[in-house]
Amino acid sequence: MVDIIKKATREGFGEEIVALGEKNKDIYIVDVDIAKSCKSTAFGNAYPKQHVNVGIAEQNAAGIAAGLATTGKIPFVVTYAVFGSLRMCEMIRQEICYPNLNVKIACSHGGVTPANDGASHQAIEDMGVLRTIPNMTIVMPADYISAKKLTAAVAEKYGPCYIRFTRDAIPVIYEEDTVFEIGKAHLIKDGQDVAIIANGDTVRLAITAAEELAKEGITAKVLDMHTIKPLDVDAVKDCIEHIGKIITVEDHNILNGLGSAVCEVAAEVGKGKVKRIGIRDQFGESAPYERLLAKNGITVEDIVATAKKL
Amino acid sequence: MKNTSVKKLQQIANELRKKAVTMIYEAQSGHPGGSLSVADYVAACYFREMNIDPKNPQWVDRDRFVLSKGHVCPIQYAALGTLGYFPEADLHTLRQEGSKLQGHPDMKKCPGIDISTGSLGQGLACAVGMAIAAKNEDKDYRVFVAVGDGECQEGEIWEACQTAHKYELDNLIVFVDNNNLQIDGTTDEVMPNIDLGKKFGAFGFDVYEIDGNDMEQIVHTLDMIRMRKNKKPHCIFAHTVKGKGVSYMENSCSWHGVAPNDKEYKQAIAELEGGVQ
């Protein structure tokens, strides 16, 4: 048995942003007093002139980032997913997305990963809410390595972007040389019987579920849909055309996240079956991370059972 | 900065008022009251104080103007059109489909708009971001902001103020348009702005309390601020008259967001024509 290396994706962000800030002096971080937790402290220490800490004032952080962006900077607002989406929501709409400014919102504590913090800190609506704002790109990496790669890609791509990380450590699933492109699903494993489209911290579950299914002679295609907007519509259509059965898996409300986005494509194509696995439109509580996933049926066993029923 | 005289600025402000009222009349939509209250210091900024180049609206070292109370944009559009940021004929397109001149300022559509605004309470934070960028790059440009007194009921204003203090933004000049009126009534009725000027002082600003419709005081204050580099942001606490220059609009919250009819328009222009010549 190979040892599984586990790392939180916020660690990948924290390391990559330091490398990016060295190369590009226009990259800024706007912190809101949770730099230590969001892993942006090293950046602030290394490049004080590229760093602003506005204290516990997220709305202001969004506005300041917009102002910085008008001068050619590439600011990353760094906070928790709950605050970086909902607390700042109208500022993101008015001052970032409407003028299409080059502001990035990089959030740790996505989904139920801030498990013992309880429902107040578990962002289950963030990507769905922001998905409805024009000009926004929404990304959630599946592991430490893709977190680094996608952070770099987000910095490179012009425009507003929300990128969401995990608080908790999750298995490293990619090799250092894996290539990721924003808006392009990453094919992890091909298969003919069912397609499992996952993102973020649930991709690891999809991979394990595919391995379990293989033991029973069911071949599952596994896609890491790290970008839910713009969605890789062609990849979804390809699953509908060639497999016809899709399971979506996400650490997010099943409303308006990855599952909804995939269903929208299937509905418009007019064929294919989709089953959504995700947070069942309910608030969490203080509990172990894996328990919170289990309470919503976000487990390997649930994915396997769903695949067999489809 | 240009050496435009007080007398000339008074004439310009009056012209801007006429243009703004005309735009709102033609569109039959817009916000005349606040457009008229801010007219004098908007004129002083654009026609004297700011280092700007209408031929090069994206000039990186330009001074910025953030109209945080974005609904009064007709007066800013009038200034930009007069300066040649876009053809003056475009002033007749306010709030029309396809126009540069959106109901609230759109930086991607209208040359000379430094940030899109319209949702109150947000512009000051953006201005702080611009001013931080100038400081961090050792650039000399300054950022001028107009916020409403009613707008100061938004919490984000104060979040931005504390950041301006922390980062010692003496390149930030905030006009507080203290006309005492908002949509539903006087600020005292709706939500008293207890000691608003002192609040800015408490947040670390140098506060200059003036008559915001007196061009001499505006120019004098801006002259003074230009000389000061004391690591403190500036607040020009400007007592103004909502609807200034049009008798029936003055001090009336019912002219916050209503366009004049034919008769009212003619009277407004006649009164403004009879103003400073």
Structural features, described:
The complex is a heterodimer of chains A (310) and B (277). Chain A is of the alpha/beta class and 310 residues long. Chain A has helices at residues 9-23, 35-38, 41-46, 58-70, 81-87, 89-97, 126-131, 144-156, 203-215, 233-242, 258-269, 289-295, 300-309, and strands at residues 6-8, 27-31, 51-53, 74-80, 104-108, 137-139, 161-164, 169-171, 186-189, 194-198, 220-224, 227-229, 245-253, 273-279. Helices cover 40% and strands 21% of the residues of chain A. In chain A, strand 10, helix 9 and strand 11 (220-224) form a beta-alpha-beta unit. Chain A starts with 5 loop residues before the first strand and ends with a helix. Chain B has 277 residues and is an alpha/beta fold. Chain B has one domain (6-273): Thiamin diphosphate (ThDP)-binding fold, Pyr/PP domains (Rossmann fold). In chain B, 40% of the residues lie in helices and 12% in strands. Chain B has a five-stranded parallel beta sheet with strand order 1-2-3-7-6, sandwiched between helices. A two-stranded antiparallel sheet of chain B has the order 4-5. In chain B, strand 6 (206-211), helix 9 and strand 7 form a beta-alpha-beta unit. Chain B is globular and about 50 Å long. The mean pLDDT of chain B is 97. The A-B interface holds A 49-50, 52, 54-55, 57, 59-60, 62-73, 75, 90-91, 94-95, 98-100 and B 60, 64, 106-108, 114-119, 122-134, 136, 155-156, 159-160, 162-163, 167.
